[in-house]
Amino acid sequence: MKKQNTLTIQKREPSSKGAIKQLRRDGFLPCSMSYKGADSLSFSISRDEFRKALNKFGMTGIYNLQADKKTAYPAMVREIQYAPVSREWLHVTFQRVSLTEETTADIQLNIIGRDDVTYAGYELLQQLETVTVRGLPTDFPPAIDVDVSKMVAGDQITVADLEVPEGLTVETEPDRLILNVSYPRVQADAEETDQAEGAEVEEAAAPSEDA
Q1: What is the pLDDT of residues 97-145, one digit of tens each?
Q2: Which of 10-14, 107-111, 200-204 has the lowest mean pLDDT?
Q3: Is residue 131 classed exposed, middle or buried when 0-12, 13-18 and 19+ CB atoms within 10 A define those classes?
Q4: Does the pTM exceed 0.70?
Q5: Which of 2, 92, 165, 208 shows the greatest Cβ crowding within 10 Å of its Cβ?
Q6: Cα-Cα-Cα-Cα dihedral of 40, 172, 108, 101, to 10°?
Q7: CA 41 to centroid of chain Cα atoms
Q8: Is the model's pLDDT at 15 over the cut of 90?
């Protein structure tokens, strides 16, 4: 079973903007947690504690939100709101989950071999960063690997080509394009220019009907 990380939470009542700003200055993040059939729960967590946990467990990790010695909520991160300029964390939304019931999550795609494609003189164009997957929360991987190291111009990978862990179902449309490999645009433009110049030379060299 996937390891779980415990985060200590402090329950709070909805606060004014001033109180929220002070909370952030004190090193805490305002958070909320939703759960089907229940009211949303508001609380705060240590920013540093959350950063360390997120770096280790990622967006698909299971977090035990510890309110007190007897109360803990298994949850996943659903959304992190950022400040538009500074990219500072403003708010974290969790979703409480059942470890025995299926749910969905957006899983990051981990591209392996990107440098190999570039070194070979090709350009990799990625269309999707994540795919939606259904399964038990304990089965969600941190990311799904996509190996592109052997790809050449003209190759592509769609959602249907992904290999996912057993027990998981990809809900993103199977024909969605994840990435494709092509020649760099500069090279393609140069080839088109060469072909056009070659055609002009041939036309100039051809004898006229009046000759």
Answers
A1: 999 999 999 999 999 999 999 999 999 999 999 999 999 999 999 999 9
A2: 200-204
A3: buried
A4: yes
A5: 92
A6: 50
A7: 26
A8: no
β-pairing verdict for 143-147 and 169-170: unpaired
- Taking residue 129's Cβ as centre, other Cβ atoms within 10 Å add up to 10
Token couple for 38? 């229940």
**One-letter identity of residue 51:** R
Distances (CA, A) of 115 to 18, 39, 48, 182: 47, 48, 33, 14
HEC letters along the chain = CCCEEEEECEECCCCCHHHHHHHHHCCEEEEEEEECCEEEEEEEEEHHHHHHHHHHHCCCCEEEEECCCCCEEEEEEEEEEECCCCCCEEEEEEEECCCCCCEEEEEEEEEECHHHHHHCCCEEEECCCEEEEEECHHHCCCEEEEECCCCCCCCEEEHHHCCCCCCCEECCCCCCEEEEEECCHHHHHHHHHHHHHHHHHHHHHCCCCCC
The tokens of 166 are what?
A: 């057993």
State how far the Cα of 128 lies from the Cα of 2, in Å rounded to an integer: 26
Assigned token pair, 41: 């729960």
State the Cα–Cα distance between residues 46 and 7, nearest whole angstrom.
8
